[in-house]
Here is the input.
Amino acid sequence: MRKTITLLFILSGTWLLLSGHTSPLLLSLGLLSVTAVVACVSRLEVLDDEGVPVHLLPGLIRYVPWLIGQVIRSNLDVARRIVSPELPIHPSVVKVDATHHTEVGRVTYANSITLTPGTISLDVSAETIEVHALTEDAANDLMSGEMARRVQRAEGA
Here is the structure.
């Protein structure tokens, strides 16, 4: 029941933020649609800790700003390499450890790699993530395990 109410509030807040509508008619239609979604989800019995990972919010609040910084840093590096052709690129495929406690953690890690310019997740398994890295520095950054440790902290491991 607690998860159902939490989902109702999260979806309602998201709807309100994204729509920006505050007229009584649209608010009631939004509430009706959110209630219908929550009723379907409850009936399908798919509400679990990974379906509504509210417990991850404190860790994600710390992780997301760090990830944004990494994306900006990598973006500038890739742009610099495009503008200055004399800067080397060394495309490579590396496997990084992905033994996170949950599937949410593994998916967050793989998506974080793909969001970071110069790297892309090619294959995700229970043990590893295969990554294409544009430069040796990008591959070394991933191999250092800093991003993996931060994702593990964010997932509460």
